[in-house]
């Protein structure tokens, strides 16, 4: 019975810090502990975006009635800015969800265009990135030349 319990409880890798991940040798790139670190970070970002969306929904449901035209214009401008921010976060949420799927399928941390490692420092700075620096720069040059 004890053997069954030991196999049923899968040992979770110890949570790494940013410093430990940055100091890790290249052979450890995207090992189980690193993937757990990035998965937690992505889930935290996702949770924050969802909380912000809920807060915005509550804020917009609070009907502030004002008769002064300039106060009303100020409120409408605030709502517009808040909705624009939530729209940007909605797009970011799609990237976060995609990155979480990539962790699950084993492709996280590797450039979508070249297949090369993206690099831990870049992933720490922007965990939802899918391109290496070189591929991103190439893409930006093409967009600058030919437009979107």
Model description:
The protein has 148 residues and is an all-alpha fold. It has one domain: DksA, coiled-coil domain (Four Helix Bundle (Hemerythrin (Met), subunit A), Up-down Bundle), CATH 1.20.120.910. It has six helices and no strands. It has helices at residues 2-8, 18-23, 32-61, 69-105, 120-125, 133-146. Helix 3 (32-61) runs antiparallel to helix 4. The chain is elongated and about 65 Å long. The chain starts with a helix and ends with a helix. The model is unreliable at 1-9 (pLDDT under 50).
First-residue to last-residue Cα separation? 62 Å
β-strand percent reads: under 5%
Major β-sheet, in short?
none
CATH class: Mainly Alpha
Question: Pairing-aware structural class of the strands and helices?
Answer: mainly alpha
CATH architecture designation: Up-down Bundle
Q: Counting H and I runs of at least 4 residues, what is the number of helices?
A: 6
Helix share of residues? 55-70%
- Using the coordinates shown, work out and report the CATH topology: Four Helix Bundle (Hemerythrin (Met), subunit A)
Count up the domains. Answer: 1
Computed Rg: 21 Å
Question: How would you describe the shape?
Answer: elongated
Unreliable spans are: 1-9
CATH superfamily: DksA, coiled-coil domain
Would you report the number of β strands? 0
The averaged pLDDT comes out at 86
């Amino acid at each position: 019975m004890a053997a069954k319990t030991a196999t049923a409880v899968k040992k979770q890798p110890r949570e790494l810090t940013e410093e430990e991940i940055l100091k890790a040798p290249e052979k450890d790139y995207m090992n189980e502990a690193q993937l757990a670190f990035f998965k937690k970070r992505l889930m935290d970002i996702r949770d924050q975006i969802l909380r912000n969306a809920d807060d915005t929904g509550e804020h917009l449901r609070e009907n502030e009635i004002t008769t002064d035209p300039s106060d009303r214009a100020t409120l409408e401008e605030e709502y517009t800015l808040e909705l624009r921010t939530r729209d940007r976060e909605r797009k970011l949420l799609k990237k976060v969800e995609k990155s979480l799927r990539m962790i699950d399928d084993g492709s996280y941390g590797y450039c979508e265009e070249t297949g090369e490692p993206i690099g831990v420092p870049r992933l720490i700075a922007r965990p939802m990135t899918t391109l290496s620096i070189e591929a991103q720069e190439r893409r930006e040059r093409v967009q600058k030349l030919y437009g979107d």
